[in-house]
Amino acid sequence: MRSMRPRGRIILFERDALGRVVRELQGSHVVERRYDARGLVAEVSSSLGFDGAFLRDDMGELDAISLGTGVDRWRTSITRDVAGLEAERRLPGGIAVRTRRDRIGRVAETSMLDGTDELRRVAYTWEPGSLLKERDDSRRGLTRYFHDQRARLTAAAEPSGRVRWRRPTATGNIQPAIEGEPRTYKKGGALIAADGVKFEYDRDGNRAAKVWPDGRREKYTWNASGRLVGITKPDGKVVRFEYDALGRRVKKISDAEERVWVWDGDVPLHELSTSEGPIAWVFEPGTFTLAAKVQGLRRWAIVTDQVGAPCAVFDEWGGVAWQGEVDVYGKAAAEGEKTAVPWRFPGQYEDVETGLYYNRFRYYDPEMGAYVSKDPIGLLGGLGAYVYVEDPLAWLDPLGLYPIDKITRQTRALSEQEIYDHFWDRHASELLGRRAMKGHDLDRVRAIVDHLRQSNQTFYHQLGRSPVIGHFATFQGRKAAVFFFRDGDYVGQVASAFFLKKHQIANIVRKMSRCGP
C-alpha cells in the first residue's frame, strides 16, 4: 500500500504473508515491527536508533519491556496476579509499583516504593457500576467524586476545598458552575459563549475564532479534510500543523521551534525538534498507555493512573523526575517541568503554544472540557458531537472518535480454575460445538478465548439483563465472539463465547459501527 501527501511525503507499508505491517516508511524514516508466534508485537525498531522488545508470558500478557542492547539495555518487568492483571511493576533503580485490586479486578491501591520506603500511595474507593467515589493520594490528599443517575461525572471535591463542577446537560455538554452565567451552546452542541469568551464556527462546525471580552481574537484555519492546520494568536503569531495521508500529525511549526513526529501505528514513536534532542515515546503494544521516555542516552519509566494518564516519572537511578495528576478536565498539576511529559488523558498531547490537546483525529480544549470540532464519525461516536467522555475517571477517547470503557475493558487470561469453576459447564461445549471433555479440551478452549479477548474489535451488548462487552475475531477461519460482564458481581468474567452464524455476524458488525468502543 502506498499513499502520498499533497506535498509529496510518501508512506509505504510492507506486509508479511499474513497481511501484518512489518515495515513502514514515513518520508525518510523507517519503523519496523516483528511479531511472535501468536501474532503479537515482539519488537519495534526504527532508523532513528530505537530498539524495543516486548516480552510476554505463556498467556500472551506483557511480561517485560526492554530498550536498547548490550550493557546499556533498560528493562522494566511486570508481575501479574492469578487473574492475569498487573500486580507489580519493577522499574530500573530499584523502584517497585505495586497494585492491589478489589475482588472484581478494579484498582484499589497503587504504591510506589523505593525498597521499603513508600514514595507515594494512591487508594481508590469504588461505587456500584464502577464509579470512582474517592481517590486518596498520600501526596495530594483526598478527592471525592460525584456522579448523576446516568453515571456521568458531575463534580470533584479537591483536597484544597475547591469543588470543580462538570455538570452535563441532557446531551453531555458541560456546565462548570452552579452560580454565575451559564455556558451557551448552539443547536448541535457547539459552545458559543463561556465566561465572557465567545466562539465562532465555520459551516462544517469547526471552531473558527475565539474572541475575548477585550476584543482579542484567535483565528483557526482548517483544511478540506477537516484538519486543523493553523492557529493565529491574538499577537499575530501563527502555529501551523501538517498531517500525513493517514491523518496523523507529523509537524508543528511555531515562532519558537519546529517539531516532527514519526509514528508507530496510532501512537507517536519519535518526536524531533529544533530546540531539544530527539525523544522516543514507548507505549505498551496495542494500547495508549505510556511506559517510558527515551532521550539520547537517558531513559525514564512512566507510571500511569487508573485510566492511563501519566502520574509519575522515574529516572534510571530511581529518582523522581516528575509527578503529577490530571483533573476532571484533563489539566495537569505537576511537580517538575510540565512539558517533560506533555501527555494528559490517554492519547492527548498538550500543545503549550495553543493550550489545546492533540487527540489524533481532533483537538481537545481542556479549559472548556470539549472538542473544538465535530466528531468526524458523526452519531457513530455518540449524541454529543463535541463531548469528550461522560466520566473521564473510567472512560477514555484516545482517538477523538468514540469513548472506551477503561475499567471494565480489562479482560484478561482465564486461569484453569476459573475455566472449570465458572466457564466450563455453561460455555465450553457451546464454544466447541460439541460436548467438551475436561482435561482433553482445556487447552483448545483456553486458546480460543485468549485469541478472542485480545481483539480490538469490540462492541457493547445485552445478554438477558446483563450489560456485556463483546470481543469479535476470526479463529481458524471462523468468526467468533467472547462476552465479558461489564457490571455487577461478575464484572470482568466471561458471560458467553461461541462461534457465530451469518445473521449474528451481521448484527455484531452493525453494533460495532454504531458504538465502538
How are the elements arranged and paired?
Layout: E1 2-4, E2 10-15, E3 21-26, E4 29-35, E5 41-46, E6 51-56, E7 62-67, E8 74-80, E9 86-91, E10 95-101, E11 107-114, E12 117-127, E13 131-137, E14 141-147, E15 153-157, E16 163-165, E17 167-168, E18 174-175, E19 184-185, E20 191-194, E21 197-201, E22 207-211, E23 217-222, E24 228-232, E25 238-243, E26 249-253, E27 258-264, E28 267-273, E29 279-283, E30 290-295, E31 298-304, E32 310-314, E33 320-326, E34 332-335, E35 349-350, E36 357-359, E37 362-365, E38 370-371, E39 395-396, E40 404-405, H1 416-432, H2 442-453, E41 458-463, E42 466-475, E43 478-485, E44 494-499, H3 502-515
Antiparallel strand pairs: 1-2, 2-3, 3-4, 4-5, 5-6, 6-7, 7-8, 8-9, 9-10, 10-11, 11-12, 12-13, 13-14, 14-15, 15-16, 17-18, 19-20, 20-21, 21-22, 22-23, 23-24, 24-25, 25-26, 26-27, 27-28, 28-29, 29-30, 30-31, 31-32, 32-33, 33-34, 35-36, 36-37, 37-38, 39-40, 41-42, 42-43, 43-44
Quick summary:
The chain has 517 residues and is mostly beta strands.
Report on the structure:
It is built from 3 helices and 44 strands. It is mainly beta. The protein folds into 2 domains: 2-405, no CATH class; 416-515, no CATH class. The strands form 6 sheets. It has a 16-stranded antiparallel sheet, with no helix packed on it. A 16-stranded antiparallel sheet has the order 19-20-21-22-23-24-25-26-27-28-29-30-31-32-33-34, with no helix packed on it. Strand 10 (95-101) and strand 11 form a beta hairpin.
